[in-house]
Amino acid sequence: MPLLEARDWFIFKTKDGHYFVQKAKGDRCLSVGVIIPAAGQGKRMGMGERKQFLQFHGQPVIIHTLALFEGLPEVDEIVVVTQEEEIARTQKMIEEACIHKVTCVVSGGKERQESVYLGLKKIRTDWVMVHDAVRPFVSREAISRLLKVARMHGAAILAVPVKDTVKMVDDAGVVEQTPDRKRLWAVQTPQAFRRDILLSAHEQFLKWDAMATDDSMLVEEMGIDVRVVEGEYTNIKLTTPDDLFMAEAIYQMRSKKK
Predict the structure, then answer these.
(1) Cβ-based neighbour number of residue 192 at 10 Å
(2) Measuring CA to CA, how many Å separate 192 from each of 59, 60, 148, 198?
(3) Homologous superfamily of domain range 4-257
(4) Where is this site: Transition state stabilizer (predicted)?
């Protein structure tokens, strides 16, 4: 929560004593960038190709994702983070698809967290969204809702209520606990933050030599509230071959609506 709320500004104090001053009420003059981590191996897909480069209706999956953000007037800059050996191929794909908001394609790290940090050091915007390269179906409406809430509170994520009962299971396969499903949300991307808040959180985790499951966890550990914005179940991440069947169904459904 804000330490101090003035008419137009929020002042946040984090656990380590840092302060962040943030414009309130959705100041649209502040620039927005997108970091696309695309350095994953995609081993679970089992296709012999990195999942972000799989062809889907005439274009690599990553191009479908980039084209969405390219068309958003709210977005000023995009930074793609991929493996060193894939930079040239990624740049060529971007040029051929006429994606103009990508300012650079940089080499990523061994872990996603490191890749996002390297992207943060390159991006120049006041606000940043972090989005999986293999989530090509996030809607413009969901992104708009996300940015609105993030601008009010400093940090926000897309998520959907969990539909199935979830069990906590030990190493022997025995159920230990059944959490209350009403309080469980499945987190998606994009996740939106003030760039300075997210950068400081990443740098703090580097000092701790610690890893987080996603970027919002980094910010949570800084003592800053992360707001949840309800997303859409169609915003799937393409991870396994089964996801490609779901992706085709979503694509066909949306094509009929056009």
Answers:
(1) 31
(2) 26, 25, 10, 9
(3) Spore Coat Polysaccharide Biosynthesis Protein SpsA; Chain A (3.90.550.10)
(4) 44, 51
